[in-house]
């Protein structure tokens, strides 16, 4: 086996294009990579660029035949543990594997589905001092879903799904749910992921020295999952001071304080245990002045947002039921006129779920929102499902695209939405509320723990 060349004396910047082999239309990414990047980090960068989930084995090869040694055989730690021989990917730099413009190599992800990528060096240029970042400059089309069976089966499914007269259309229709709409990559999201990759190791060292529910959760993960999660902790800026102003707290807690003021003195519930119609009308007039709720808003059982709010506030210890009456708790009485204290109280009780499993998923939702991932829109659900699977939480449903994990953290999600918009029924969408700075700040405070005295 040929020896690897010595790395150059000065680090160079590589402009590469990675194409998913066999994809039609072409699916590709163009990235800039520092030449001193080791191949295990190149693997991480390609995973993020194509939005794979790092859930399978991978392999680098200098030729299209990944089982051919070629000039050098690159192996992973798993390969070594299985008795294979070769050079460990953590010991090989990119500028040792390829040297000149026009050189190429192959990266295969999931040795069952065989997602093969051809990576071609387009140019090699001097690296600016202090610039060791990884960036995705361009790309076309999102990658196929994981575990769908490989590129040829995936494209066959797409062709069959698009042709109602195809002889296999009826027999294969149960698989069509695996086919997300074709779309273009979100380069902003990809580059945020690449930035997280750069700061993950340092953040992980800091996180290991903390004593919070999040740090405990992360310590229980495997190495790759720890680094992946630590990247979001970097974006959440948990090492920076968290300050809430009186004005911001007043807006973020407006929904909660409105209910506390109305319930002061107690409200007699109906025989079925619901708020009486006059109370529902009065509350909704203040909580939903724009009348965004589609119903008549005079019966609590038919006014889902108000019922959810009351139940969530009860779970948070701000309201209680006693002998047929809804009452404000002592904590609620203490906090109703103190927005900053109420805000800190809410932060200290998030995640709001009861079971250990649901609280762990709630921590992950807080982390994603604190890191600014609320801007992902509906893709936030898929991100939460992925991270839930990393901590061993599995949901039934048969498809990784169902927002199963979001359904078990509704209380935490609603608290963040209400704080993010300052309203019960925001004019913006749910995801815009989760993307707001107010929602992110509350999530950060919840993860960081109570403020020091």
UniProtKB/TrEMBL annotation:
Supply the name of the protein.
Plasmid pRiA4b Orf3-like domain-containing protein
Gene source species: Marisediminicola antarctica
Tell me which residues make up the Plasmid pRiA4b Orf3-like domain: 14-176
Domain of life (superkingdom): Bacteria
């Amino acid at each position: 086996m040929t020896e690897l060349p010595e790395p150059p004396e000065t680090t160079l910047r590589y402009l590469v294009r990675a194409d998913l082999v066999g994809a039609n239309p072409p699916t590709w990414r163009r990235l800039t990579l520092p030449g001193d990047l080791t191949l295990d980090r190149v693997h991480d960068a390609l995973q993020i660029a194509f939005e794979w989930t790092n859930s399978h084995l991978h392999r680098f090869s200098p030729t299209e035949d990944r089982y051919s040694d070629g000039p050098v055989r690159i192996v992973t730690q798993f390969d070594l543990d299985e008795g294979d021989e070769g050079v460990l990917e953590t010991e090989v730099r990119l500028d040792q594997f390829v040297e000149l413009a026009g050189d190429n190599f192959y990266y295969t992800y999931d040795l069952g589905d065989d997602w093969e990528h051809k990576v071609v060096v387009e140019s090699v240029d001097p690296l600016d001092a202090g610039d060791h970042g990884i960036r995705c400059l361009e790309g076309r089309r999102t990658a196929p879903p994981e575990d769908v069976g490989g590129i040829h089966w995936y494209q066959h499914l797409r062709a069959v799904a698009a042709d109602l007269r195809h002889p296999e259309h009826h027999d294969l229709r149960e698989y069509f749910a695996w086919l997300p709409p074709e779309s273009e990559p979100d380069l902003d999201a990809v580059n945020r992921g690449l930035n997280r990759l750069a700061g993950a190791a340092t953040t992980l060292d800091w996180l290991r020295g903390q004593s919070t529910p999040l740090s405990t959760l992360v310590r229980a993960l495997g190495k790759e999952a720890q680094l992946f999660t630590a990247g979001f902790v970097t974006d959440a800026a948990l090492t920076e001071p968290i300050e809430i102003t009186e004005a911001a707290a007043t807006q973020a807690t407006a929904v909660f304080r409105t209910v506390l003021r109305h319930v002061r003195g107690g409200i007699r519930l109906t025989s079925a245990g619901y708020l009486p119609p006059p109370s529902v009308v009065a509350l909704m007039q203040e909580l939903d002045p724009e009348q965004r709720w589609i119903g008549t808003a005079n019966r609590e059982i038919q006014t889902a947002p108000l019922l959810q709010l009351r139940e969530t506030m009860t779970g948070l210890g701000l309201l209680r039921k006693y002998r047929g009456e809804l009452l404000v708790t002592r904590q609620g009485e203490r906090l109703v006129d103190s927005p900053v204290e109420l805000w800190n109280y809410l932060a200290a009780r998030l995640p709001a779920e009861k079971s250990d499993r649901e609280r762990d998923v709630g921590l992950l939702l807080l982390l994603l929102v604190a890191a600014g991932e609320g801007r992902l829109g509906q893709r936030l659900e898929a991100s939460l499902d992925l991270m839930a699977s990393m901590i061993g939480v599995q949901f039934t449903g048969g498809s990784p695209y169902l927002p199963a994990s979001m359904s078990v953290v509704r209380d935490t999600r609603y608290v963040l939405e209400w704080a993010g918009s300052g309203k019960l029924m925001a004019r913006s969408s749910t995801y815009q509320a989760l993307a707001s700075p107010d929602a992110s700040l509350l999530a950060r405070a919840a993860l960081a723990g109570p403020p020091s005295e």
